[in-house]
Amino acid sequence: MLETTHSPTTPLSPPLAPKLVTTVRELRAAVRAARAAGCSIGLVPTMGALHEGHLSLARASRAECGFTVASIFVNPTQFAPHEDFDKYPRTLEADLQALASCHTDLVFAPQRDDVYPAGCSTAVEPPRVAQRWEGECRPGHFRGVATVVLKLFNLVQADVAFFGQKDYQQASVIRQMVRDLNVPLEIRVCPTVREPDGLAMSSRNRYLSVDQRSQAVAISRSLRLAAQLAADGQRQTAALVDTVRGVLAEAQIDRIDYVAVVDPDTLEPVVALSGPSVMLIAAHVGGTRLIDNWKI
Ligand code: PAJ
Question: pTM above 0.90?
Answer without folding.
Answer: yes
